[in-house]
Amino acid sequence: MEQERRSLFSGLRLSTHDLAVAGVFGALAIVLAFTPLGLIPVPNPTEAATSLHLPAIIAGILSGPLVGGMVGLVLAISSWYLFSAAFMTFAGGNLLVALLAAFVPRILIGIVAYYTYRPLRRWPALAAGAAAVTGTLTNTFGVLGILIWLGTLPPILLVPVFSMNVPIEIILALLVTIPAVAALRAVGRGRIAADSD
């Protein structure tokens, strides 16, 4: 019983390397949130396409789903601090819906990226690209999906958001994630969690 409990929690342990990755990419998420680098102006109801999710994607690939989730949590807290009024507006004044939309998708970004990369790890560029796309879509579909599913956002708003935001966010994610993961693989061979067997 003790051995089973130990093996269950062994996946939750973080190495010094994992903590460093969480710290660096968490700090990068904060920098993106508090500077214009994190939001790209586009003419639609949200008024911006985002690059805020990129540190969570890369952290998830580099150090696994727990670290990816932690960096996503940093992003969620930063987003809530800056944009809670917007979340509340889109959530129709419902605090619970606003919190779900702000936190759940962001925490899942790095987790989804890790589990997308894993089965494709023999082809690192393809794996990184697929992780970039699914991590990006987790963010966009997650936030808007929760708001639409819980009835606070009209589905008609999906058209401008998906026609303007999503292509920009996916292209940006591909342009950043593929070379970043390639560079990290080159300098830290054997230290990429999503590459390990």
Would you give an account of this structure?
This protein is mainly alpha-helical. It has one domain (17-193): Orthogonal Bundle (Arp2/3 complex 21 kDa subunit ARPC3), CATH 1.10.1760.20. It is built from 7 helices and 2 strands. Strands 1-2 form a two-stranded antiparallel ribbon. The model is unreliable at 1-10 (pLDDT under 50).
Q: What structural class do helix, strand and pairing data support?
A: mainly alpha
* Major sheet: arrangement of strands: 1-2
Tell me how many strands there are. 2
What is the number of independent domains? 1
CATH topology: Arp2/3 complex 21 kDa subunit ARPC3
Low-confidence stretches: 1-10
State the helical fraction: over 70%
Query: Distance between termini?
Result: 26 Å
**Overall average residue pLDDT:** 85
Q: Please give the CATH class.
A: Mainly Alpha
Corresponding CATH architecture: Orthogonal Bundle
**What share of residues are in beta strands?**
under 5%
The Cα radius of gyration reads 17 Å
Supply the key terms:
disordered N terminus; 3% strand; two-stranded antiparallel ribbon; 2 strands; Arp2/3 complex 21 kDa subunit ARPC3; mainly alpha; 197 residues; single chain
Draw up the topology in text.
Blueprint: H1 2-10, H2 16-33, E1 39-41, E2 48-50, H3 54-63, H4 65-90, H5 95-117, H6 124-149, H7 158-187
Antiparallel strand pairs: 1-2
Helix pairs in contact: 2-3, 2-4, 3-4, 3-5, 3-6, 3-7, 4-5, 5-6, 6-7
